[in-house]
Inverse folding.
């Protein structure tokens, strides 16, 4: 099963966009999917439903960090590689979608009752968010 399929199935199962992106790479990263789901849980809906950085994006950052992040204080090379890949990921996602901010991607602020109601009425979490999850996974596959 492809990473994209895994991510979309996870999202469709009721998990958020960050969880869907991160867990789709668990086998490659050799991490436990239950732990990954817990780590990514707070990052959905623009980080805790604050409509800030898209969860698919922050999920992507977590994948990059788990793959290339440094574990020793003096490992500047790994740290810089991770930062460079995060910037590249951000640039590619922004090129495709115009932003990495949840409120801009959804054209409403789900951090407000009115914005959340609008997103639910327009089914944005079912129509737009899967596109961002899929895009994040494809970008990760390209840059990893």
């Amino acid at each position: 099963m492809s990473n994209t399929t895994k991510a979309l199935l996870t999202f469709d199962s009721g998990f958020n966009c960050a969880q869907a992106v991160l867990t789709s790479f668990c086998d490659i990263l050799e991490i436990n999917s239950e732990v990954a789901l817990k780590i990514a849980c707070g990052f959905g809906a623009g980080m805790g439903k604050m409509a800030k950085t898209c969860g698919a994006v922050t999920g992507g950052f977590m994948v990059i960090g788990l793959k290339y992040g440094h574990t020793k204080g003096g490992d500047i090379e790994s740290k810089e590689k991770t930062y460079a890949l995060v910037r590249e990921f951000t640039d590619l996602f922004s090129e495709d979608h115009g932003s990495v901010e949840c409120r801009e991607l959804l054209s409403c602020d789900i951090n407000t009752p009115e914005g959340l109601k609008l997103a639910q009425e327009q089914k944005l979490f079912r129509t737009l968010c899967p596109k961002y999850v899929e895009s994040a996974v494809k970008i990760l596959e390209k840059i990893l």
About this structure: The two ends are 18 Å apart (CA to CA). Residues 3-143 form one domain.
